[in-house]
């Protein structure tokens, strides 16, 4: 679920299972975060498009299968994977977000055009050779599911994204670590990935409801990935603007899934 913090409310020990995800308001969320292309998202798109584009330019391969874990009400991670995928799974828990995503598959709303245009600064997107809406409708499908249940899909997908999810669903550091593990274990060895995190988030609103967050920074993000990606970068965004109070910045991590098989976190 794609999430960003807001407000100055403080929560203690609110775990993922304690949250009413059906109350998440995707329309309010999109209106605030994605009606216009923000500087932070433009920077993320630049990093991700170059990472994926350079990977497939050097490694070849494709078409592949992709997954966006916790897609929420955000389409641009799927758009970022689209040139190389024969199928993209939008994996999402909230029933409201699932309905929103399904409403976008056949013909997504006009506000997402500016995100696609930003990706088209890279040749791989600009030379797709077909209407992006048509392509999106052919390769994208929505699956309702819990991030923690991804264990049954180990090594299933050949590329993946997870944006503002693991740190934005719980106050528990253990659940944050387990969320990143579930994402990474769902990827096959060598799969390129990109993930984004709110830095030192205190929680956020989506519509009228407040949702929890886990306080993480660059060191925690790096620690969550070290066992699963031998070659990766963790980068704090240069963009300084904040959409809401309650966090100190955004972090992007990108790299490749390694082939190590570590003992799962209990």
Automatic annotation (TrEMBL):
Listed GO biological process terms: methylation
Single GO MF annotation: methyltransferase activity
Keywords attached to this entry: Methyltransferase, S-adenosyl-L-methionine, Transferase
Name listed for the protein in its UniProt record: Methyltransferase
Naturally occurring in which organism (per UniProt): Streptomyces curacoi
InterPro entries per the UniProt record, alphabetical: NNMT_TEMT_trans, SAM-dependent_MTases_sf
């Amino acid at each position: 679920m794609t999430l960003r913090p807001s407000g100055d409310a403080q929560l203690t020990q609110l775990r993922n299972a304690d949250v009413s995800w059906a109350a998440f308001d995707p329309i309010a969320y999109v209106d605030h975060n994605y009606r216009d292309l923000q500087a932070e998202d433009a920077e993320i798109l630049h990093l991700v498009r170059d990472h994926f584009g350079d990977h497939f330019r050097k490694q070849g391969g494709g078409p592949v299968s992709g997954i966006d874990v916790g897609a929420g009400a955000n389409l641009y991670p799927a758009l970022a994977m689209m040139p190389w995928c024969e199928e993209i799974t939008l994996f999402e828990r909230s029933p409201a977000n699932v309905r929103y995503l399904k409403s976008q598959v056949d013909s997504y709303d006009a506000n997402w055009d500016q995100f696609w245009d930003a990706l088209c600064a890279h040749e791989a997107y600009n030379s797709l050779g077909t209407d992006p809406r048509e392509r999106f409708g052919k390769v994208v499908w929505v699956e309702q599911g819990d991030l923690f249940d991804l264990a049954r899909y180990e090594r299933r997908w050949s590329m993946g994204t997870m944006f503002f999810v693991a740190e934005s669903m719980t106050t528990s550091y253990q659940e944050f670590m387990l969320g990143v593990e579930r994402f990474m274990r769902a990827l096959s060895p060598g799969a390129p990935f990109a993930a984004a995190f709110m830095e030192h988030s205190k929680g956020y609103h989506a519509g009228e409801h407040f949702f929890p967050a886990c306080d993480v920074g660059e060191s925690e993000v790096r620690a969550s990935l070290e066992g699963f990606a031998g070659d990766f970068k963790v980068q704090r965004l240069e963009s300084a603007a904040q959409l809401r109070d309650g966090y100190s910045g955004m972090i992007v991590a990108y790299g490749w899934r390694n082939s190590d098989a570590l003992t799962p976190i209990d």
